[in-house]
TrEMBL record:
The lineage of its organism: Eukaryota, Metazoa, Chordata, Craniata, Vertebrata. GO terms for molecular function: mRNA 3'-UTR AU-rich region binding. Residues 47-174, 201-264 form the Exoribonuclease phosphorolytic domain. It holds the Pfam family RNase_PH. It comes from Turnix velox (Little buttonquail). This is Exosome complex component RRP43. GO terms for biological process: exonucleolytic trimming to generate mature 3'-end of 5.8S rRNA from tricistronic rRNA transcript (SSU-rRNA, 5.8S rRNA, LSU-rRNA); nuclear mRNA surveillance; nuclear polyadenylation-dependent rRNA catabolic process; rRNA catabolic process; TRAMP-dependent tRNA surveillance pathway; U1 snRNA 3'-end processing; U4 snRNA 3'-end processing; U5 snRNA 3'-end processing.
């Protein structure tokens, strides 16, 4: 495994399985916790980020662990988008999550992941930015979405997208009015309403081994051996939101269609998991 890792994997792949016991199209165990849990708040404090969140979630995809905290703040809308609010995602891959990352400014992989999440938000139209506007040209919500990897073992895009969706479904925004006499905003924290989620995008990633063989939900080791990767994002209506393929081996149309079919099935699995967890949360 150490000297000839690819040959080691090939012996398993010939039998249509992987060293961790999974089939080629099988995901790792997936869990999600939603809400303002002490564990999440504690890690936000450790990482020097926000210590309280208006919505939060923790997702585990095998040994990959990601937390997402959403912080809502008030701001003036942009002049060219007077009736819209903002959504600002940021993915962090700190050195504590893996030896492959270093302390300091965001690396290439973290920047690419942040851009991917921003593209998913736009392409899926999961939130109508008009819904974040409070007063046209005067006041709107800004949703800062901090996605932090605590333990990295591959497939950060799927985990980050899942954590973002789960955290946003947990967001409660306070009621805000503008005093007509003074022009100042008044926030009523006793009256809160959930964020309106229009679409529920889910990402499904595949690694390409030996230029032809597809495996789903790759580990960090499998990503290192891959000759390419592809991530499919679908929504509630089985609509294809985006295909993310950063170079590597080309993918034939038939194999891409297989990926999309598997992604649609995965979407239903994730949606059912989120619904189950939300129903189990007792109201405050």
């Amino acid at each position: 495994r150490t000297v000839e890792p690819l040959e080691y994997y090939r012996r398993f792949l010939k039998e249509n399985c992987r060293p961790d016991g999974r089939e080629l199209g099988e995901f790792r165990a997936t869990t999600v916790n939603i809400g303002k849990m002490g564990f999440i708040e504690y890690h936000y404090f450790l990482l020097g980020s926000i210590t309280t969140a208006d919505g939060s979630a923790l997702v585990k995809l095998g040994n990959t662990t990601v937390i997402c905290g959403v912080k809502a703040e008030l701001a003036t809308p942009a002049a060219d988008s007077a009736n819209k609010g903002y959504i600002v995602p940021n993915v962090e891959l700190p050195s504590l999550c893996s030896t492959k990352f270093r302390s300091g400014p965001p690396g290439e992989e973290a920047q690419a992941a942040s851009q991917f999440i921003a593209d998913v938000i736009e392409s899926s139209q999961m939130i109508a930015k008009e819904d974040l506007c409070i007063a046209n040209g005067k006041l709107a919500w800004v949703l800062y979405c901090d996605i932090i990897c605590l333990d990295y073992d591959g497939n950060i895009l799927d985990a980050a997208t899942f954590a973002l969706l789960a955290a946003l479904k947990n967001v409660q925004l306070p009621s805000v009015t503008i005093n007509e006499e003074t022009g100042s905003s008044e926030v009523n924290f006793k009256q809160k309403h959930p964020l309106i989620i229009k679409k529920h995008p889910v990402a499904t990633s595949f690694a390409i081994i030996d230029d032809s063989l597809l495996i789903v939900d790759p580990t960090a080791e499998e990503e290192e051996l891959a000759t390419g990767t592809v991530t499919i994002v679908t929504d509630d209506e089985d609509r294809l939101c985006s295909v993310h393929k950063p170079g590597g081996s080309p993918l034939a149309g038939a194999k891409l269609q297989d990926c999309i079919t598997r992604a649609i099935t995965r979407h239903k699995e994730i949606n059912n998991l989120i619904d189950k967890v939300i129903k189990s949360i007792k109201p405050n």
